[in-house]
Amino acid sequence: VQLQASGGGVVQAGGSLRLSCVASGVIDSINVMGWYRQAPGKQRDMVATMTGGGSSMYEDSVKGRFTISRESAKNTVYLQMNSLKPEDTAVYYCYAQDGPLRFWGQGTLVTVSS
């Protein structure tokens, strides 16, 4: 499984960005897809996840601001980020879960200026 993330950039506080992640390769048994982020000097933390059945989970600080969605026909997972804050600045990584295996994308940098 290969994952290609895109959509990062620089945005002012209060702005919006949409991240995309396209999965390719052997993807038929992927169930969960989602996003993690890693700020400088910090560990990588979960942001949002979604199962193939559409159930989603969010980290508390992004609830009500971020929305995860999946487009199965395009093997793509999205992260719509609204009302961005400087503390959202991080490298965002998409991932896909296939049973015990977890695959990661290359990361896309989101910078939120105050």
Summary tags:
0% helix; 57% strand; four-stranded antiparallel beta sheet; mainly beta
Report on this structure.
The model has no long low-confidence stretch (mean pLDDT 95). The chain starts with a strand and ends with a strand. The chain is mainly beta. Strands 2, 4, 5, 6, 9, 10 and 11 form a 7-stranded mixed sheet that branches. It has strands at residues 2-6, 9-12, 17-24, 32-38, 44-50, 56-58, 66-71, 76-81, 90-98, 101-104, 108-113.
Instruction: Please work out how many helical segments DSSP would assign.
Output: 0
Helix/strand class: mainly beta
Residue windows where pLDDT falls under 50 for at least 5 positions:
none
Cα(first) to Cα(last) distance is: 37 Å
- The helical percent reads under 10%
Overall shape: it is: globular
Strand portion: over 45%
Mean pLDDT: 95
Radius of gyration: 13 Å
H-E string? EEEEEEEEEEE
Q: Biggest β-sheet, characterized?
A: 7 strands, mixed
| Count of strand segments | 11
Strand and helix layout:
Blueprint: E1 2-6, E2 9-12, E3 17-24, E4 32-38, E5 44-50, E6 56-58, E7 66-71, E8 76-81, E9 90-98, E10 101-104, E11 108-113
Parallel strand pairs: 2-11
Antiparallel strand pairs: 1-3, 3-8, 4-5, 4-9, 5-6, 7-8, 9-10, 9-11
In short:
The chain has strands spanning 2-6, 9-12, 17-24, 32-38, 44-50, 56-58, 66-71, 76-81, 90-98, 101-104, 108-113.
